[in-house]
Amino acid sequence: MTIGKMNGTDSNETVPNCFFVKCQFTFGERVIIIFFFTMIFFVSLVGNCVLFSAILRHKRLRRSSTNFSMLSLSFANILITLFCIPVFVIDLFIMGKWVFGLIACKLVSFVQNVAINAALFTLLIIGVEKFLVVYFPFHVRSQRTKVRYLVLGGWIVGIIQSSVYLSYRTVKKFHGVAYCIEDWPSFKTRQIFNIVQAVALRFVPITFMICLHMVTIMKIRARLQYRRSNEQDETLSNSAMVQVSPHALKTRKKAVVMLVVIVTASAFTLFPYNGFMCWRMLASPEMLADPFASNVAYIVTMWLVFFNSVCHPIIFGLMSSEYRNAAKRTLSITWKSPASSRSRSDIRKQNREEPMIMTAQIGNCPSGSS
Fold first, then answer.
1. 357: in domain
2. CATH number, domain at 169?
3. Which residues, 6 or more positions from 226, have their beta carbon under 8 angstroms from its beta carbon?
4. Is residue 75 part of a domain?
């Protein structure tokens, strides 16, 4: 991180050797920052684990190629939540130095970038799939199983691109304090890599996805209007030209609208960080003269990056009754204690055995009177 200007008190005196981020904020400010990141951690962990379990437990959700993509998305969010948020908070605001060693220094940045790349590639694959399903519904159905291979391919591409961090992330000491930093051969190399990554893997895919979803929604809307205008004509309604029911079109439109909300949320949460990193790579030394403002911007944009992991389960829960019901069933199964499960099983078994016992008793009763 950049050299600080303020110490851990309320004083505004410059501290020349302050390399700690936590020395630029008061204790109360650090507590508030830690609270917001902790809140993101728990909400993201619970939400994505529930979503992941819901898809995994229910065959109806698991069979869909789109839901397999959602499974990939949830897994990427869980990786970011578990491996990145706690390390980020401990490193910057609690310890003020890197204490996790060289291997963790390389892996944390690697995992974070793999997960973000995989999530964006997954969203891109879903967007293209929805577009093809709407425009070429009968040519794409037989190819839906290939979507899973594309999702796995997205993870592989993300791993290859993020392997750069395994090479250039290292631990170095400044004024006796260890930091996990990027040690590039030259600043120019780092500058080119960060700008190309931001443009090619963030700005362009997200902008393309938003445009693709909007085109898909307009096509669905046009088909719905066509169906409404010709719903009285039995010849047209039974023709081979329009074989998709209005209900199916509305369902697809709702799914695409949900994806538009997800992609828009990704844009609002990922664009600021990547824009900030590009600005840092291109800004003059005079523009970076205020390290406190730069660190505040860094913390806010990183919080938005982590908040992106929270958006997906929230959007699914609010906009999809299918996911909502599956999540409720998953939670009810999880919270059910083994004792209560056994007792209910015993009651059902007893209810099944009682008619058999009564039948046997009736069969053994003596006939006639004494």
1. no
2. 1.20.1070.10
3. 242
4. yes
Identity at 125, one-letter amino acid code: I
Is the predicted pLDDT of residue 16 greater than 70, yes or no? Answer: no
Question: 8: which 2 tokens?
Answer: 């851990």
Sign for the pseudo-dihedral over CA of 331, 70, 314, 89 = positive
Domain that holds residue 242: 22-332
Task: Please give the angle made by the CA atoms of 59, 65 and 71, to the nearest 5 degrees.
Answer: 70
Contact between 224 and 245 under an 8 Å Cβ cutoff? The reply is no
Q: In sequence order, what are the beta bridge partners of 171?
A: 180
Token pair in block for residue 275: 């824009």
On whether residue 256 sits in a domain, the answer given is yes
Distance, in Å, from the CA atom of 119 to the CA atom of 107, rounded to the nearest integer, reads: 18
Domain total for the chain? 1
How far apart CA 38 and CA 119 sit, in angstroms, is 22
Is the pLDDT at 185 greater than 80? The verdict is: yes
Q: Is 307 helix (H, G, I), strand (E, B) or coil?
A: helix
Q: Does residue 340 form part of some domain?
A: no
How far out from the chain centre does Cα 276 lie? 21
Mean pLDDT of 330-336: 66
Distance CA 144, CA 180 (A): 43
Q: What is the pLDDT of residue 365?
A: 39
